Description:
Layout: H1 9-26, H2 33-49, H3 63-76, H4 80-88, H5 91-94, H6 99-120, H7 130-142, H8 149-163, H9 170-190, H10 194-208, H11 210-222, H12 224-244, E1 249-255, H13 258-268, E2 279-285, H14 290-306, E3 308-309, E4 315-316, E5 329-335, E6 339-347, H15 348-356, H16 358-363, H17 368-388, H18 395-407, E7 410-414, E8 420-424, H19 429-436, H20 438-442, E9 444-449, E10 452-454, E11 466-470, H21 480-483, H22 487-519, H23 525-535, H24 540-548, H25 559-563, H26 577-581, E12 592-594, E13 603-605, E14 617-621, E15 627-631, H27 635-643, E16 648-653, E17 664-673, H28 678-689, E18 693-702, E19 705-714, H29 717-730, E20 734-738
Parallel strand pairs: 2-6, 13-15
Antiparallel strand pairs: 1-2, 3-5, 4-5, 5-6, 7-8, 9-10, 9-11, 12-16, 14-15, 14-16, 17-19, 17-20, 18-19
The chain binds manganese (II) ion (MN).
Amino acid sequence: MNKPVEFTPENENAIILKEYRNVLKSIKRNITKEDKKLIREAFTMALDAHKNMRRKSGEPYILHPLAVARICAEEIGLGVTSVICSFLHDTVEDTDISLDLIRLKFGDKVANIIDGLTKISGVFDQHEDRSIQAENFRKMLLTLSSDVRVILIKLADRLHNMRTLDSMSERSRLKIASETAYVYAPLAHRLGLYAIKTELEDLSTKYLEPESYNYVKNRLNETKIQRNRYIKTFIEPITKDLDEAGFVYEIKGRPKSIHSILNKMKKQNIPFDEVYDLFAIRIIVDSFGEQEKSDCWKIYSIVTTHYKPNPDRLRDWISNPKANGYESLHTTVMGPKGRWVEVQIRSKRMDEIAEKGYAAHWKYKDNPQAAKQTSSIEAWLAKVREILENPDSNALEFLDDFKLELYTDEIFVFTPKGELRKLPSKATVLDFAFDIHSDIGLKCIGAKLNNKLVPINHVLNNGDQVEILTSNKQNPHEDWNDFVVTAKAKAKIRDFFKQAKLRASAMGKEILERKFKNAKIPFTSDALNTIIKHYKLPSVSELYYQLASEKIDRTRLNIQEILKVEPNTTTENQQPESVQKNKPKQTAIDSVILGENEKDMAYSFANCCNPIPGDDIFGFVTVGEGVKIHRTNCTNAIGLMSNYGYRIIKARWAKNELNNTGSFLTSIRVEGIDSVGIVSTITDIISKQLQINMRSISISSNEGKFEGNIFLEVKDTKHLDSLIHAITAASPLISVHRLDLN
Ligand code: MN
């Protein structure tokens, strides 16, 4: 790493020039004369723009863009464009240089990358508020859609800042280090930049947990000689066989990162001495194309001839690479002295991709295996974009889901057509459905898994073949979020409920407006504020929502009382409660009591919503058919109430024997996954267990799903609820709800 250098006005220029030459040398691809000229121009422009600026350490500022460019070229393997962009990455933000000038001189590609970098700079640095940070982070990831190099250069920028963090103040150090651990290291991991990810993690641990960091670092140093001796003994028989077999290879025995050792100590609650896999042996074989895979397995068999492998710890990321492109064969074997040793086997190409990640794929773009991996990262980026571009998704929630996904392991599952899909481990049927398409997720009722039916919360395993079953009648349930693990599924489910809440609010508003209209009180924001205060609610929309969802009992909502307005006694259907109570006792023939003057009118139950005792109801005076009783949440009701307010009359259920006989017609909708005896299970519960009369039943089954309507007679809503509950409890494959015919 950089040696400390004394800066004097005399040697400064020499140092800058030397660093510039180092950058040029580190570009591994062929540079044309034209490229060289552009690089020189970018360098001169940056040098001039930053000429009066110094870093906190006192060194000339230009050394920072130079270092970023070198990391891009040397450690990530990026090319000329990224070097030019690295030189200029801080100019638009910190100097007089405009984006237009950059566009004029270097073209659109460079200008767009610089624009992205400028927009995301200070994402975390200027705001304390985590939600603003999250929103900015979302914007930052959106730049992925223009050019992934924005993120790669940003990571190089962050890495250099972390390497030189010592010169910052304590407060900035902690802030920058925690952002690095929180966002940048996971991002590097996801893009397959293992070397950079590991260094970022170790550097942030160094500043966030200096004591633990130093402890592990010292212990690693103390045990170094002993460890090297062990590694030497371990690899001796292996190298002998590899040589005999004629392999060209390299073996590295490296300690694991301080961060990962510390993690292990914390997770397993063990002291340093008990962390058995302090190091991993890596065998990198020099072979090409078809040969790569078979050579890795040959070497595996050599290793396991000498040391017994732990069968639970074989990881074959050669046949099925990780989504970030990682390919390698990992095994853990029992070494001398009864110690477990992890051995990683891979080809030279796989190793370079493992170290340099995304960018290294381009180098191998003619290699079919590497091309497949590149497109899998592209697919991941496309998925991230899709989630991000949804304007409704909440940035903070997104960030949490997204971060969750960055580090998780993967499983591989197949579609019915045999297409392979990657999902995070612990993904469920529902995650898979959302992965295919949001609409399929929202309508998913289960799946055929290897030809067996499973519910939506079934956790998938490697190699499962999954056929999603959907129903148009399906809608997301509140508990869905408890068992999905992918960011996409979580975001889509949340959006659905947000939309549902919005719709409910619109309904709640109509209810309230009608109350105001009937009470002849102007519908003003002052009045609304008084009501919100009365219920201690945060907003008007929450009031609407609670009214629509019946969290606030609309029949008890007395706006005159809350607003302290004299009741308008001339309005017949808005009698205050006290007047109602004084009414003469009803005879036991009627199940419904209508408002004061209409009490003798003939009434009947509306067919559209089939009210049963316990429902909120109202009467509607029809032409020629007397009074029709509707449920207040009947979809027809909203229209009736708003258009014909004067024909609405109050109605409530009488407390009498008639209403206890169980002769109110209602209907339920059942649907789910077909399995043997499901219909008789349902009918048994209805007629035998609960002794409810069924009027009619129609159930049809198709492609493993069934759906149907059952008309039956119940006493009241409680009775109906207990029925629905009993059926739901009988099988996770059935969903039941009360049927609304309109
Ligand atoms: Mn910078």
